[in-house]
Design goal:
The protein is an alpha/beta fold. The protein contains 20 helices and 17 strands. It has helices at about 20-30, 45-60, 80-85, 105-110, 140-155, 170-180, 180-185, 195-200, 245-250, 270-275, 290-295, 310-315, 320-330, 350, 385-395, 405-420, 445-450, 470-490, 490-510, 515-535; strands at about 10-15, 40-45, 65-70, 95-100, 120-125, 130-135, 155, 165, 205-210, 215-220, 230-240, 280, 335-340, 355-360, 375-380, 435-440, 455-460. α3 (about 80-85) packs across α4 and α6 crosses α8 (about 195-200). The mean pLDDT is about 85.
Length: about 525
Amino acid sequence: MTKFTYVNLFSLSTSVGSGKTRAAIRYMAGGDSSQNFQNFIYVAPTLKLVDQTAQDLKAACKNERNIHLIHSENSSNVQELILDTLNNYDRFAEIGHVVICTTTTFLKILQLIQGKGGWKVILDEAFSVLEFETWALGRGEHTEKNRARFDDLFDIDPGDKHRISAKAGKKKYVQALAAKNWDDVGEGDASLSGFAAHSINPAVRLEFIGEQSGSLVAAVWMLPELFDKFKKVIILSAIFEYSLLYYLWTSLGVTFSEHPQFTSSSVDNIHQIQGEFISIGHILHKDDKATRHNLMRNHETGEGFVKGTAVAELKDTQVIDKVADLAAALFPKDRCLVVFNEWSKTQFNKLKPMGNFELIPLVCHGLNKWLDVHNIVYLATTNPEPFKVKWLLERFQGLESVDVIEADIYRCFRIHNLYQAVGRTSIRNKYDHSPKTVITLGIQDARFLHDLFEGSNWLGQVGNLESYEAKAERFKRAKAAERSKSNAANDPEYQAKRKEYMRLKERVKRGVITASESTRLEAVDQWFKARKKAV
């Protein structure tokens, strides 16, 4: 695969609350004299963050920049306006431009931007470079027919990481399908328009993974080429080195340099500043991973969730119920933020009446209204499906440029939502030295945060939840033994062997057993052991 070398790609991995956005504003406002009359594209993940940055930048620039804040809430044709500004920036070359937009909009228009050499890009937080495209094959006779249709339109190259491309002779049709030009191609293949669009997009790779649950699945990930023509690209991101963007682009040979205006000393290190004031612990037993499967287990037996079980029957029977109860016990009065998944959000009904718990979104980047709250319990899981992990491991295998193990990939999917949630608390305020408590579900995430926040206090497991995986195994063995006992009571051969065994043991006890009887006793004993092992 082609290796890419970029001399204008920079990154700064920061802590939450480090002041990286303020540093970006200073840079764009001309804190460095070389920035006068230069053009910037500032990109951030949320509307609130781009709005706030625009206000702060206007105050810092004092009308010495043309600042264009363009997003869906202030314009109905966002992409057209941004592209018009970016592609015609030389109309007002005497005063620098700053275009401010969301990450979603920027990525949509990226390949349409002309004259990239006239712009410096500042990405406030890394973006997701990876998604997964699926296409349902249908059932019965449709499965084979649909797979044949897919193979008729697309090639899969096993020599190039199973990259998917339009088949020779079908490229015009695939292009029309990607453009959803139904007048030319009809709507018979409409459900394949996503695959078609990705297969012809030079900005991404579309790589076939296989069949999962009756659907064809492919990985779609953005390549770095489209960023190469900009004057500079600066990525400012919390714990950037633990992102999929970092791993995937590094696997292509991309290197990220330190920009002289964005060094680790130019921002605050909240990990050092707040470390000594933070206590970190976890709820689940150290042998249980923080997965939805484990949280949905029956807390009495450890057995997994049975699909189709009525909601009413599940009330107060699952591990997540115990977890929520423990959260309530940990913080009976102190204010505390809490995070659930959508499927487990009803657990907040237990905490809400207490009055001191506040539910925050699973994705909460840029929300800063809880800076006076010192505690957080993170009870959500964002683990990837196993096939996604397998694909990533295979993609990284044998590469000298990146050393990744399975735990690293799981962490990439989990840690950023957790870390951003922790950063919504008073932890992000470097002047707040109040005691703070962070509670996670599993030990792995708690250990990661403990290592990150230097000098933090390790609580270990809070509460006394046992290992539900071990409990499930014990319950399984007990049920097997019960079945074995029940079966034995109705098995004539078993009853005959047991009667013989008891007779021979009695002769051993009396000291009158013969050599042939000893041999027979050993054979009967082996029969029982073999039966037990089989059960």
